[in-house]
Specification:
Layout lengths: L1 H50 L11 H6 L8 E5 L1 H6 L2 H8 L3 E5 L5 H14 L4 E5 L11 H9 L5 H10 L4 H6 L1 H4 L16 H4 L16 H4 L9 H17 L2 E6 L6 H16 L4 E3 L4 H4 L7 E3 L2 E2 L1 H18 L12 H19 L5 H8 L5 E8 L9 H7 L4 H6 L2 E5 L2 E6 L6 E6 L2 E7 L6 E5 L2 E2 L6 E8 L4 E8 L4 E2 L2
Parallel strand pairs: 1-2, 1-3, 3-4, 4-5
Antiparallel strand pairs: 6-7, 8-9, 8-15, 9-10, 11-12, 12-13, 13-14, 15-16, 16-17
Helix pairs in contact: 4-15, 4-16, 5-7, 5-12, 17-18
């Protein structure tokens, strides 16, 4: 009996050890397998983020990313539409003059389906009081540029709404657009810095595109007065009705609008047919192309091309819209409210875009350096190179404008200013020097061993335009890039 009990005990211990050993082995294997899958998913997620589509009108600016960064229920007015919308309506102006928290939910070539579904997307997190819808999407059925298809179809995060958008527009390879990976995986050939880290303006921007180009437009007044009508299509009628139904569901007022642009005869007739339908249905709309005298637009200076306003024209149009909103609605002035800090940041960005533009018009060395001394939120690097005392320019006076002495001029060197204050002075043959200008931008200064002239690199790119004379490099901290590179000796050379 004792032997049997001993045998059973040994047998039990054997089974227990077997289970412990193999159970532990299976557990370790399961943990390794789970860990592998987690790591794989994290790696793929990171790779996808790098390769993902990141702009809605170019230059890594994404109105969708800007929307996702916006605190809930802070947008009071939405402008939905195409490039005519993001080029023509500047929310910074509405904020600066009226305290209106507006947003351009605009994408290049935004089609009818995209307009409807992006307004729905806005309403997921926002409760706008008024939505203006650009009618340009009613003039075409398919995009002429494939990049605009990607901008409209790939920018929205995966959801029922994004899938509905894709299935309403895309005719072939719909799953490629839903999954996105089959389309974006080839982008590795075009990766740039902002694929790896967030472009700041795509966080705090309000959907607007700054453009200071001037294109004198030969306005076709006869076309503008054309009253011929193309009867509204079933697709356009359904689109308008769907948007009006959405406005009732989401409790916002809706206005349809056309923006200042040179239209073809076909486009003008389509617009006229839509106006006729809107009149019949008592749906509000505004033809801003008919109001140029009221807005004060000047065709010689307020357009960047025949179909888009520049920043000067956009300010006039935006102030006019602000007056309309102020008259019709009791919208709260949110200036000074910390929840609306993105509008303050966007306004500051816009101001610096303006500064960087007018900077180019200041050629005289004394006028330029006097103005530059008061330019906040920037680094200014002054660097003298060989022969800087041989030319006709008043380089000594320019250095004096920055508080440097005649002795500094005689000795030469490199001076780094931040917000007008000297933060570092280096000899004309400097030892190696490194500084972070911001989280993503490095400054490196060294000496060329052969010429004994300085080497100045920003993000490993040489920014000196000449090794003869005074170099001036301006890095704007708000814009996050170099906004001016020039040299003074016998002439001014512009790098930007």
């Amino acid at each position: 009996m004792a032997c049997m009990e001993l045998s059973l005990t040994r047998h039990s211990l054997y089974i227990l050890n077997f289970r412990l050993f193999y159970g532990d082995h299976v557990m370790k294997k399961a943990i390794k397998l789970i860990s592998f899958f987690i790591i794989t998913i994290l790696v793929l997620a990171r790779v996808y983020h790098i390769l993902s589509w990141k702009d809605t009108y170019g230059n890594y600016v994404s109105s969708v990313q800007q929307l996702r960064s916006t605190p809930k229920n802070t947008i009071d007015v939405v402008f939905a539409g195409s490039s005519h919308c993001y080029a023509g309506i500047n929310p910074d102006v509405l904020w600066d003059y009226y305290g209106i928290s507006a947003f351009d939910m605009a994408i290049s070539g935004q089609d009818r389906s995209s307009t409807y579904h992006y307004v729905k997307e806005v309403c997921k997190t926002q409760n706008p009081k008024v939505v203006f819808v650009d009618l340009y999407g009613a003039t075409f059925d398919r995009h002429a540029v494939q990049g605009n298809v990607y901008r409209n179809m790939l920018s929205m995060p995966l959801s029922r709404n994004s899938i509905d958008l894709i299935y309403s527009y895309v005719e072939e390879d719909q799953m490629d657009y839903v999954l996105k990976w089959p389309i974006v995986h080839t982008r590795y050939r075009e990766l740039e810095n902002y694929d790896f880290y967030q472009y700041p303006y795509s966080t705090y921007g309000r959907g607007y595109m700054y453009n200071y180009d001037v294109w004198p437009v030969d306005h076709d007044y006869e076309m503008a007065m054309n009253t011929a009508v193309t009867e509204i299509s079933d697709e356009n009628r359904q689109w308008i009705d769907n948007l009006c139904e959405l406005s009732q569901q989401e409790s916002f007022d809706i206005y349809f609008m056309t923006l200042p642009m040179e239209t073809t005869e076909e486009e003008k007739m389509i617009f006229n047919g839509i106006y006729k339908y809107l009149d019949e249905e008592n749906i509000p709309y505004i033809d801003f192309g008919d109001l140029e005298s009221t807005i004060g637009l000047y065709y010689g200076s307020d357009f960047s091309d025949p179909t888009h306003l520049n920043t000067f024209g956009a300010e006039k149009l935006s102030r006019s819209i602000g007056s309309i909103l102020e008259e019709k609605y009791d919208l709260e002035d949110h200036r000074g409210d910390s929840r609306y800090s993105l509008w303050d940041k966007s306004l500051l960005y816009g101001q610096h875009r303006y500064y960087s533009d007018i900077m180019q018009g200041r050629v005289d060395i004394d006028a330029f350096t006097s103005w530059l001394k008061g330019y906040d939120n920037c680094y200014v690097i002054l660097a003298t190179c060989s022969g800087y005392r041989d030319g006709q320019e008043d380089i000594a006076g320019a250095l004096n404008n920055f508080g440097l002495t005649n002795a500094d001029y005689e000795n030469g060197g490199i001076w780094i200013f931040e917000d007008g204050e000297l933060v570092k002075a280096l000899s004309k043959e400097p030892d190696e020097y490194n500084r972070d200008l911001d989280s993503y931008t490095t400054l490196h200064i060294d000496t060329d061993k052969e010429s004994q002239n300085p080497i100045i690199e920003i993000n490993e790119e040489n920014v000196l335009t000449t090794d003869y004379g005074l170099n001036i490099i301006v890095y704007d901290k708000i814009l996050g890039n170099v906004v001016d590179i020039r040299s003074y000796q016998d002439q001014v050379e512009f790098g930007y």
